[in-house]
Structures are given as C-alpha cells and as structure tokens.
Here is the input.
Amino acid sequence: MAELRHSGKIAIVTGAAIGNGKAIAELLAREGAHVIIADLDEAKETVDSIAQIKSAGDAISIQTDITDEKQVDALIGKVKSKFGRIDILVNNAGLYEEEPFDLLSFEKWKNMLEINLNGLFLMSKASIPIMKSNNFGRIINMSSNTIWLGTPYLVHYVTTKMGIIGFTRALASEVGQFGITVNAITVGLTATQRPAGSRLAQGNILEHLLPPQAIHRAETPEDLAGIVSFLASVESSIITGQTINVDGGVARH
Ligand SMILES: NC(=O)c1ccc[n+]([C@@H]2O[C@H](COP(=O)([O-])OP(=O)(O)OC[C@H]3O[C@@H](n4cnc5c(N)ncnc54)[C@H](O)[C@@H]3O)[C@@H](O)[C@H]2O)c1
Here is the structure.
C-alpha cells in the first residue's frame, strides 16, 4: 500500500473535541498522523471516530487549557517523552463571541486575547524547540474571514484574528531556517455545532450569508481540513508566512 501523506508524523490539534478541529484531526489521522488533541474537554468523540478509520493513524486526548503555561508545558513534555517529536501544530482552539463595542467590557476583551492569542503563543513557544531539534515543523493558525469583512459586534474577536496574521508573518521569518513553516487560514462562517456555526447549521442566516459567496452553499469543517492537511505536508515546504482565505469566495466591498 502506498505510504499515506502524514505517515509517522506527530500532530497536535488544539480545540479538536468538536467543530473544525475535529474534522482537521480526523483528516490528519486518516492520512496517517498520530494526533494529540489538546482541548479543555475530553475529546472522546474525536478519538472514537478516528479509531473507526481503517488504516489510519491514531489519536489521544490530553485535556489541556492552552492559556495555562503549566498545562501547556505538561502537554508538550508528555508528547516529547512519548514520541520525541512534534511535526505539526494546528492552533485551532478559539473563542467566538459577539458583543457590541458599547457593551464590551475590559474583562471580555482580555478573555478573548487570552484564549485566541496567548493560548496560541504558549502552544507555539513550547512546540518550536522540539520542531527545531528535528529540523521540521508545520504550524497552522486558524484566523477568520471577519478580518477582511470588518464584521460588527466582533471588535475583540477580529482584533485577535488579525493579530494571528501578524504573528504568523513575523514568526515565519524567524523559524524558516529550521525547516519550520507558519501559515494561517482565514475561515468563513462554518456550519459547526456552536456558536455562530450552529445558527448557520439551522439555516436561518443562510439567506443573508450565501448571496455574497461565489460558492452558494454553507462551509463545513471538512472544507477546511484539506487545506490544513496540505499546509501540514512536505509538499508545502516553500509556503510560509501566508494567509489563505477559505470562505466560499465572499465578495469584499
Ligand atoms: N465556526 C466558524 O464559523 C468559524 C469561523 C471563522 C473562524 N473559526 C475559527 O476556527 C476555530 C475553531 O472554530 P469552531 O467553530 O470549531 O470552534 P468551537 O467553539 O466549536 O470549538 C472550539 C474548541 O476549542 C476548545 N477550547 C476553547 N478554549 C480552550 C482553551 N483555553 N484550551 C483548550 N481548548 C479550548 C473548546 O473546548 C472547543 O472544543 C476557532 O479558532 C475559530 O475562531 C471558526
């Protein structure tokens, strides 16, 4: 049998208990990776579904709060001692929350930065020394197409998702010499279980959302997994510091 795209690779996917992260973890495993799911919740559903995939890699769930430095260090320590390497890090865990700027409290602002930026920083910071020691690494950061659209009631969220683009570009130029690439994906509104995605899945905002899209159907988590898999592969070795927009081709005005 031909070797799978990610055979023998060690991949960490944050926030993969549900939603986009779950679909990403499933595809990486289907393509041969050993997947470690770092989520606040136990990722039983994802681990079980990966176990059903024949001739795939495998998955384990290590409950981790990515905003807690000690928990992140413990996670990376476990991965290092079990596998000795980290090839792929998908910084997917994130918080989405709508709030008009007038009502946006400093607490909510800080909490958004904590999860969407500090968590991504801690995970990248802890993983990169191990990637460097193997002269290979793929970091993929999940941003949002709201950064191009200027969507209202999301100032705190959009700020963090634009911050991810700056993080991606600057970090890429420091780690490229070690065989590590860093890229971002700006995700369109996707039919996931929660929070905005659940409304999309119910269909009551589709009529407003779909007309400006070139592709007239709702985006699904599986639509994202393929591009993540490509950016995680050896085939993408010359692509770094980039942001790829995956949103069905929403027209920007
Ligand atoms: N779904 C969409 O419409 C959409 C659109 C644009 C961007 N995105 C981005 O895609 C990513 C995934 O989105 P989703 O809709 O699947 O999210 P989701 O809310 O369905 O799932 C997020 C997961 O992250 C986990 N998580 C949250 N905080 C955590 C923490 N501190 N430590 C560890 N895990 C934590 C949650 O437990 C959950 O399993 C996010 O970064 C999100 O901003 C999603």
The chain has one domain: 10-192+220-245. Strands lie at 10-14, 34-38, 59-61, 88-91, 137-144, 180-187, 243-246. The two ends are 49 Å apart (CA to CA).
